[in-house]
Amino acid sequence: MNQILSALSLMFLCSLSSLSAQNKINISGTVVDSQEKYPLEYATISFFNPNGSEAIEGGITDLEGKFNIEVVPGNYDLKIEYLSYKSKTYKNKSLTKAMDLGTVGLEVDMAALDQVTIVAERTTVEIKLDKKIYNIGSDLTTAGGTVSDALNNVPSVAVDVEGGISLRGNENVTILINGKPSAMAGFGDTNVLSQLPAEAIERVEVITSPSARYDAEGTAGILNIILRQKETLGFNGSITLNLGNPDLAGIAANLNYRTEKFNLFSNIGFRYDDAPRNSFSDANYFDRLIDGALRSPEYERIVEDQQVERNNRGYNANVGMEYFLSDKTSLTGSIFYRYKEDADISNNDSERFNNNAIVERTLRIERENQDENSYQLALNYMTKFNDEGHELTADFQFEEDRENQNTFINEDYLLTQDAATVPFQKEQIFATEDQKEFLFQADYVLPIGEDARFEAGYRGNFENEITDYRLEQEDLSDASFFVNDTITNLFDYEENVNAVYSQYGNKFGKFSFLLGLRLENTQLKGTIDSRLSDEELVEAFGFPIDTDFNNNYLGLFPTVNLIYNLGKDEDQEESLTLGYNRRINRPRSWYINPFPTRSSRTRVFQGNPNLNPAFSSAFDLGYLKRWDKFTWTTSVYYQYESDSFERVEENTGQRTTDGIDIIRTIPVNLSNNIRTGAELGILYNPKKWLRLNSSINFFQFKTEGEFNGIDYGAKNTSWFARFSGKVTLPGNIDWQTNAFYRGAEEGAQTRTEGLFSMDLAISKEVLKNKATVSLNVRDVFNSRIRNQFTTTEFFQRYSESQWRQRQVTLSLLYRFNMKKEKSRNGSRENGNEFEFEG
């Protein structure tokens, strides 16, 4: 406080003084690597009183290594520092007028390189105007794991037992790779992230208040996954080998070759795993009224126990080149390819009861084979008109994904009391999905003065998905197969989004703001080629189906992001942020396709072609305080969503051939959803050998609305928390423990019980610190099991599901030529974002 009062007093006296010597002057210069001459961004420049030890003024370099700092004329000790480099000091330098110090070269401190490696492994958090950046570092518990495993350790993010990703408890989250939609993220299917190695991640950006530059999709926000891309001159890279139980084997390589003119980079991997899963359900069925008469169920209780053997293998490769046309212009091209094969065998043992006695038992065997081919072509052009940030970027992407699925289903009686039972029909399912997506994007950035910036751009995203689904059933009279006309269909679906945006940001001392407006037009267009007429479709599904629809939605999406630095310096030691944004939740194709899936005879999922997009408005207030060894982050948020999606279960009124009611799950638009919450994160590093971090997220949501005369309103309060601790033991052995707990949740029809899981890992540097051996156990107690209670007017059901059992993995990571990291083009991996440093 005394320092603050002294500084204020000095400023007041300076403002009264008429002496020209007291007017501040500009001291500028550029900091570069002395050997390779590339700029060092975020280097620190400090001005000291020659007779004291406290810095009087200071600042940091920008992305081009440049600095421009105002100081009062006088004599100073000037010190320039950068991590892993030898600092340079100018003693008792006389600064009486504006001066350009020119280019200052710093030498690499070879003795500090090992320390740099330690710092780089630490998990840190940075606060920007529209996001939090988690540099996940070297997380031992995800060694040999996947991107989904790594995301599950990021605060605010949760990955459920089936691979579904949620942000602050909201599952409508958009996944980006390096700032753009990508085939790596699986066209919105987050399960694809379980095929990519966690080692590829450099950092994760949690964007809860996206600026106008981003697509407005995703009411929860955006997770932007930044992949590693080495910038070191010469040839360098790493190779990772993984072995595990249940059966797991994998190899991944990150290779890079860089010269002053171009940079070749690649990520190549293979993964095989046999990850069994299981589920269990116990359902009791009620009497119900049909046409004024009380109708009893064929079976009062049905118990199902499902065991699935999954044999999965996948290959992925990303190869590209960045070519520097000039010092300020580059062209980057890349090709991504993924091939995946799955072979699943499911055994479903079903027992049916009346009067607490078993009356029938069947075994359903389902064999499913699936192969998937995905590739992506991407081009990026960037030119900088000057060194002040005036630039233009343009992107083009083409992606295609083709999936083939063949399923054979056979069910037999193991026990029955009905002597006149009719055998079950065998079923064959042939399904193909062909998805194509084009992306065109251009972004223009114009600095206005030192602290203001204007941005504008266009983005066009054009997606087409064709689903060809054919169900064949056995003719019991001659064992031949015929096509089921009711279910078989061809669904051609398009989602076209055109958007323009502009935003303006400025900084006044410790206060920064970013205001934006985005105009988007969404076209949802589809045609359904069915063997049934419109009247037959209504009779089969219970509601009219538009087999040729073309819906357009035009929307304005404003964004406001504010940040105020409460700290003494401009180093983000303490900051307060406020964000507002409007978002859209567009229904995906499987939410619209009205033809039900056939993964079960008794429970089906059916899309709703009458589904409209949901719109939300959200507010977010955040606070960060960073001490030397302790970082505290917290935020509160509120979101109002209209026409929100809710998945409801209802009785179709139809029965299987053996008399079991068929229950369908269907997404519907409810009137609104109100969500409020608060989160707290802590990072604590009391010693070099100890690192602790923890976070907790508390949220409440309230839904309102009805469907088919049934009220599906609900109010739910829940929370989740995680803890991570990393300890360096004698012998330079690292030990890490991660724990996660998710509280119970209650929806319109289903209550989900709380869930706890723990991961453990141990690692050791070998081969003169060129390699790392690690052993980790995910879900130590095998407790990552989802327990649910579902109640409707037709039935009550208890269910359990475990997507993946406890996994033990041994990993070896070998690095070569990866010591001196170059940051010449650090902005290029995420150069499309306007970030004030707070």
UniProtKB/TrEMBL annotation:
From the UniProt annotation, give the residues forming the signal peptide. Answer: 1-20
| Domain TonB-dependent receptor plug positions | 144-222
Q: What is this protein called?
A: TonB-dependent receptor
Which PANTHER family does the annotation name?
PLUG DOMAIN-CONTAINING PROTEIN (PTHR40980), TONB-DEPENDENT RECEPTOR-LIKE BETA-BARREL DOMAIN-CONTAINING PROTEIN (PTHR40980:SF4)
Query: Which SUPFAM superfamilies does the entry link to?
Result: Carboxypeptidase regulatory domain-like, Porins
- Principal cellular location given in the protein's record: membrane
A single GO CC term, please? cell outer membrane
Which keywords does the record carry?
A: Cell outer membrane, Membrane, Receptor, Signal
Q: Which residues form the Outer membrane protein beta-barrel domain?
A: 384-814
Subcellular location(s) per record: Cell outer membrane
What is the originating organism of this protein? Subsaximicrobium wynnwilliamsii
